[in-house]
Specification:
The chain has 87 residues and is an alpha+beta fold. It has helices at residues 20-28, 31-34, 46-53, 71-81, and strands spanning 12-16, 37-41, 60-62, 67-69. 37% of the residues lie in helices and 18% in strands. A hairpin with a 4-residue loop joins strand 3 (60-62) and strand 4.
Amino acid sequence: MGGMRKEVEPEAILFVGEDPESAELLKRLAPDVRERIKVVNVNGLRGWLYVEYGTSRTPLLVTESRVVAGLQEILDFLAQLGELRAR
């Protein structure tokens, strides 16, 4: 089936809210990193977020092996992986 694009499984899920930290993180992520992350707006789902991950703080980055909450913590985590490109 030519022209069909294969759906790529995201490497992580980034839960965001309407808070300034979420907006700042989305602005600072390089396009190639954003392509590999599924972004989910959690407004209205914070109770579920707390039950599932133990926090309702956003932004919240969930990978196969880590849960990282907060702007600076996520930036530091991505920098350790070499995934952050400063803007």
